[in-house]
Amino acid sequence: MWPSHYALEDRREGQLARRESVQSGPGSQALIVDLIRSAGTISRTELTEATGLTQPSISNIVRRLIEDGLVRETGRAAPRGGKPRTLLEINASAKYGVGIQLGFESITLVATDVRGGVVGRQLVDGAGSATPEQVTDRLVTLYRGFVAGVGLAAPSIAGVAVVAPGPIAQLGGVLLGPPTLVRWDDFPLQQALQESLDVPVVVDNDAAAAAVGEFWSRQVSRTESFACVYMGTGIGAGMVLGGALYRGSSSNAGELGHISIEVDGVPCHCGNRGCLERYAAPAAVMAAAEASRDRLDGLGLGFAPETLSRDFDQLARAAVSGHEAALDLIRFSADRVAAASVTLANLLDLDRLVLAGPGMAVAGSLYARAIRERLEQRFFARRAHPIVVELSANPRDAAAIGAASLVLQGTIAPGHGPALTR
Amino acid sequence: MWPSHYALEDRREGQLARRESVQSGPGSQALIVDLIRSAGTISRTELTEATGLTQPSISNIVRRLIEDGLVRETGRAAPRGGKPRTLLEINASAKYGVGIQLGFESITLVATDVRGGVVGRQLVDGAGSATPEQVTDRLVTLYRGFVAGVGLAAPSIAGVAVVAPGPIAQLGGVLLGPPTLVRWDDFPLQQALQESLDVPVVVDNDAAAAAVGEFWSRQVSRTESFACVYMGTGIGAGMVLGGALYRGSSSNAGELGHISIEVDGVPCHCGNRGCLERYAAPAAVMAAAEASRDRLDGLGLGFAPETLSRDFDQLARAAVSGHEAALDLIRFSADRVAAASVTLANLLDLDRLVLAGPGMAVAGSLYARAIRERLEQRFFARRAHPIVVELSANPRDAAAIGAASLVLQGTIAPGHGPALTR
Q1: Are B403 and B203 spatial neighbours (Cβ–Cβ below 8 Å)?
Q2: CB pairs below 8 Å between A and B: how many?
Q3: Which CATH code is given to the segment(s) B95-213+399-420?
Q4: For an interface test with B, which of A57, A252, A349, A382 has the most B Cβ atoms less than 10 Å from its Cβ?
Q5: Which of chain B's residues have a Cβ under 8 Å away from the Cβ of A257?
Q6: β pairing state of A225-231 and A235-241
Q7: Which residues of B touch A225 (CB under 8 A)?
Q8: Spatial separation of the C-alpha atoms in residues B10 and A412, rounded to whole Å
Q9: What is the pLDDT of residues B222-241, one digit of tens each?
Q10: Which of A215, B148, B301, B334 has the fewest CB atoms within 10 Å around its CB?
Q11: Is residue A26 within 8 Å of A414, Cβ to Cβ?
């Protein structure tokens, strides 16, 4: 289906108009914070112009933000005809968010300030085969040690977000293959942590958190159609559409790993056939590697569930340095991720795609290249507009950093998730 | 990736809260109209409760709507403790929208009232191989004759929307195979029509228009994740997410026909491989039918580009009445559309999928059944929530009716597209 060029122009104007119409609730506070943050410094007059809100509304919101310590006044702008205007800026150290990426093999804690800067990071052993109760106790201890070590004062901590691929408290009962957190079925992690911690606790999906983090830290425009492809144990996508994290009906949106790339392909535990994960996720790549292990001698691969991430990183490292057999395996995976990325781009008419997750940490550039090449040839709207493919600056910690961003955004506009509110 | 059940609960509350936070601009007018329309009759007090807007805001908006004739007062509600409240209802005949579905083989004109009721319909020969200028002249004549015939007074006509699959004014230059409007490359249809008509003219994509029409006429909740799969010559999807038509970066979102269902499948004119359209669209089905034409004797199939729609309908009719060879062909197509629908549902975590378009007019129930069955077995979030699959009440005219809805919505909240504004 081809759109009309002319209708499109109308719409573009409509989009701009829409962008400036602001919610009357906490959403406008979030937008104000977002505008100040992306501008660096900005005056109240400029905020009025940028939002279409009335001057009294802007004054009220700004006063509240200054009282809360999130925004501060900083000098005056050179007069532009009229009288000089006081400039506003974000008070980066007003609040901190803590993000915890919970995995089988590792747990990462990060703290970020309001500008998204990482002020602390800690990497420890994963949940492994410990019980959920044991892991919860460990997380509480870890959290306390971490915030003390980074030196965050309790009142400045906005909250903590724990992110995981699941199947923590999964909705169904279908289990992802090991190594993963199979014992966490229906365990109320949020509740258990909240009982021990006196800051707000949220639990979220890693791909969604990474998308929010990348959207936030890259200062992506709210009008962009944005997605983050996240490869950890599985493959997921987070989507920020019209400035809002898109979650779908039950927060199950973005299941990129479970879209079929082969209509009659291999069966998947999810019920579908030909799922991307079955061809491209680390477990699939290592299964293929094991089948041709004679070509991979000397790479020190363990071929065991508990060494999956390490093995995949090792294979990726060999691929990046030109090892032919390793390159074949990674390229096969990258081509499949690229095929699914074209599907995602064609359905959502994306402007930007960012790659993140531990699976992208070593050979992310190979994946980015494969996706770029395929989009150049196959993206439906390629003649209408470019699509930018970028690699996360920190693929391994992207979900933890995104989690911390989620918490901060929740604080800035309570109950909404500011820049990301519909 | 599995989401957290617990995070989900928080989010669900957030969603409800969000639903009630209303834009301060024309968006609130649109929401008010939407609430009145879906309630049948409603009081100002109930509108205040439902939106969270202040009483003075509600009074202002309602006064404006009454002045514009879109809403009227109608009797009083039985007192509920307090004093009786005046009820409001939509004045269905205040405005009419005209939708024109422009096709190679046929042109359909419809007029709808504010409630979405069809008040007039006309079917005439399509654009065929006439020049765009000739077709534009014909459309102007057709439009004038149609509104005169239906008896619509000029001031009550909100505007006219022309919808087509393209490649009218396509952005690229890639052509869809015949039979289609190949000569319309870069023709400024909106502008050409606007010069001759004194009502607002818009041009839009058929699948997007159909989605808007189905969303509107079914009174789907704004919190639902909603898509319309539209099969005409090609296959497209319109998506209404968070109450807003999702268009993507360049209005090219929803290219369901050009998602790959076979990673190494047959090449498509769009540049991609294994595109759904190459297996499931009417032209693909008829190509397969021609290859086994000995099994289809007696169905009177023409196997020519200019008889494609008629042939496909004929084959679909035979399939519906149990003709084995015809059934095999339609089932193959339906299974492929179902596979792509699972992809769409998994990426967007859909609540509802509606099938529309001329391609669904005869055998739509076979497509709906195939999609339902596949979703039951393969939809990722199937244990979290149901997904409803419905057939348009009027698949053939769905885009024209949707176009008329688009116009009306544009009138109710100028420059925004009310129920569909982000």
Answers
A1: no
A2: 353
A3: 3.30.420.40
A4: A252
A5: 1
A6: antiparallel
A7: 248-249, 253
A8: 17
A9: 889 999 999 998 999 999 99
A10: B148
A11: yes
For residue A167, list chain B residues with Cβ-Cβ distance below 8 A. 2
Residues in B closer than 8 angstroms to A24, CB to CB, are: 21-24, 53
CA A49 to chain centre: 31
List A residues 214-233 in contact with B (Cβ-Cβ < 8 A).
224-225, 230, 232
Mean pLDDT for B9-18 is: 32
pLDDT of B412 over the 70 cut: no
Give me A52's structure tokens: 């279409």
Classify each residue of B329-348 as buried b or exposed e, where b means 16 or more C-beta atoms within 10 Å of its C-beta.
bbbbbbbbbbbbbbbbbbbb
Every domain of chain B with CATH number 3.30.420.40 lies at: 95-213+399-420, 219-396
User: Strands B201-205 and B157-164: what pairing?
Assistant: parallel
The CATH number, out of the four listed (3.40.640.10, 3.30.230.10, 3.30.420.40, 3.30.43.20), of the domain defined by the range B219-396: 3.30.420.40
pLDDT at res. A71: 92
- Using the predicted structure, report yes or no on whether residue B10 has a pLDDT greater than 50: no
* Topology given in CATH for the domain delimited by A218-396: Nucleotidyltransferase; domain 5 (3.30.420)
Contacts of B252 in chain A (CB under 8 A): 2-3, 346, 349, 380-381, 384
Q: Distance, in angstroms, between B276 CA and closest chain A CA?
A: 10
Residue range A381-410: average pLDDT?
A: 92
Is A378–B273 a contact, with Cβ atoms under 8 angstroms apart? Answer: yes
Quick one: average pLDDT of B383-391?
93
- Return the pLDDT at A389: 98
Its ipTM equals 0.84
Q: Which CATH architecture has domain A18-90?
A: Orthogonal Bundle (1.10)
pLDDT tens for residues B261-316? 999 999 999 899 999 999 999 999 999 999 999 999 999 999 998 889 999 999 99
Q: Which tens digits make up the pLDDT trace of B168-217?
A: 333 332 333 333 555 566 678 888 899 999 999 988 889 999 999 999 88
The arrangement of secondary structure in A96-212+399-420, i.e. its CATH architecture, is 2-Layer Sandwich (3.30)
Q: Is there a contact between A1 and B188 if contact means CB atoms under 8 Å apart? A: no
Say whether residue A200 is in contact with chain B using an 8 A CB cutoff: no
Class of domain B5-90 as given by CATH: mainly alpha
pLDDT of A79 over the 80 cut = no
Q: C-alpha dihedral over A18, A20, A24, A25, to 10 degrees?
A: 90
